[in-house]
Amino acid sequence: MIRPVKIANAAGFWGDQPDAAARLVAAQPDLDFLTLDYLAEVSLSIMAIIRAKDPSAGYARDFVDVLRSLGPFYQAGGKTKIVTNAGGLDPAACARACQEVLKAAKLDHLKIFTVSGDDVLSVVGRGLSPIGSIPDVGRKARPTAGSAPAEAKPFANLDPGAPLSSIAPRLVTANAYLGAAPIADALRAGADFVITGRVADPSLTVGPCLAHFGWKPTDYDRLAGATVAGHLIECGTQVTGGFSTDWLDIPGNDDIGFPIVEVSADGSCVVAKPAGTGGAVTVPIVKEQLLYEIGDPANYLSPDVTVSFLTLKAESAGENRVRVSGATGRAPTDSYKVSATYRDGYKAHGLITIFGHDAVRKARQAGEGLLRRLHSRGCVFRETLIECLGTGASVRGIVSRMSDTHLVETVLRVSVAADTKESVERFTKEIAPLITCGPQGVTGYATGRPKVLPIFGYWPGLISKSLVKPIVQSLPANHTNERE
Amino acid sequence: MSANKSKTIRADSRNSRAKLRIPLREIAHARSGDKGNSANVAVFARSPAAYAWLREYLTAAAVETYFKPLGVGAVTRYEVPNLEALNFLLPDILAGGGSRSLRIDSQGKTLGMALLEMPVDAAKVCRSDKL
Prior knowledge:
The structure holds two protein chains of two kinds. Chain A is of the alpha+beta class. Chain A folds into two domains: 5-339 and 460-482, no CATH class; 357-440. Helix content of chain A is 26%, strand content 23%. An eleven-stranded mixed beta sheet of chain A has the order 11-12-8-7-1-2-3-6-4-19-20, with helices on both faces. In chain A, strands 5, 14, 15, 16, 17 and 18 form a six-stranded antiparallel beta sheet that branches. In chain A, strands 9-10-13 form a three-stranded antiparallel beta sheet, with helices on one face. In chain A, a hairpin with a 5-residue loop joins strand 19 and strand 20. In chain B, 30% of the residues lie in helices and 25% in strands. Chain B is built from five helices and six strands, in the order αβββααββαβα. Chain B has helices spanning 3-9, 48-57, 60-67, 111-116, 122-129; strands spanning 21-23, 28-35, 38-45, 76-80, 85-90, 119-121. In chain B, helix 2 (48-57) crosses helix 5 (122-129). Chains A and B meet through helix 11, strand 14, strand 15, strand 16 and strand 18 of A and strand 2, strand 3, strand 4, strand 5 and helix 4 of B.
């Protein structure tokens, strides 16, 4: 029986704690793999904007710094391999930057592989292929990432109405969520670091399991178990106490440890965290993360396997250890999920604090007056929003403990969206003047003018697996392996 | 849904029976997340009795009514008995979601906490306890 494989997560999103990886390997040098997940739904479109200004910057540069921080660990003989989707839009550029770091640290012997082929912008942009629309999480089974049966009809948005042709000229990115197989190929070929573009988040964990255990692509129950393990750790500290309902009761919630899954040959896993770290791994916390961003629990779709969560069992396996077993899987569908993004105007949010009696009335009137003034100056917005934070504005109309008139303080948040930049830019210059033309008691303005932010429309769809060719390359690119 | 059940889940703390009501968080915990313009909220029972109550009273219709002010579409409920949980899918609740929504909570981070503030009839929970 092959020993369990220990896989940790050191980043749940682009912007997570920069020292998580170094702290993990320091606390637990016997980790087999570190995974770092940088890509949320619209992350690639943000990379596209950065890349437009700097062609070499289409990836998560944070990872290069993470790798640099691990130099001493590898120089001391550390063996932990890394699998990450930090490659974003340009895994090759990310790999080259990492190669420079390794060279500087005299670690040239370590091998970097890239997984690419996920970019399907040219296919989607033509709008010609047999791509089907998919319902997202709220409409039907729509898990974190994956695929669903393709229908032979044009790529269609979930948002009612708009056909692909209406946004095709504004498309910024279109990427298929690749699976675990090319990651496993890279690891079998000797990779120490696998840098991918878009892959399904759990596949960052399933790939190492495939390579470690030598599972067959049809070992569906095992793949299902590994997919659950990957799903559990892909958001970092959310499975070790972060984001939990009873967060106040979590010991050491000021420095929660990043998670580790110990995956066994049968696909079951134990969720854990390094000794001496804060946070907690308990059955209630693990249950919460099991259903995080899940649609139909009987049909969690990944490119590797379709998983049922209805057979899972979560049980305590000691202090800060929870065993998750019983996942059942069946064949994946014949399509990949695609995330496409397109430019859709601009927005900005302005924040200012208002203190004093009638604070909420004053805030609302100041916000409404600001928008009227801008309108009278010729600004055109397609959407505006006034929120008085502190009044239950996050879920307005649902939860409110007391009448707004009792509040002595509120944060006024005014937001605007427009098709063109000019009106939004003008808006950003009108928040500060509220200090002198608004009510007495306006404060909290120290962070400068709000930023004008591009809006990206999000367009999920499906693409037939036959139209996508995952590419595995070692660096320097002397070896290319197209799957299938 | 019977009129009786409907009354049980009405979010009205000024109701004359307010003293009989407890927030859902007393018997459940939750987690919410986004996908595009939609969200899910998973609700987990703190005890087997609480799960019996959740299954009977925390219906898709009740949750849909509760979240109506945010513009939610038709809510789907999935039972997850092995985790003593219910998973609710809340379509079109994020005013555009992720990059597009102007709301302070564009990603549904607060929806789990919001649902846990739902007042529930303590007497009914106690009866479920005896099941």
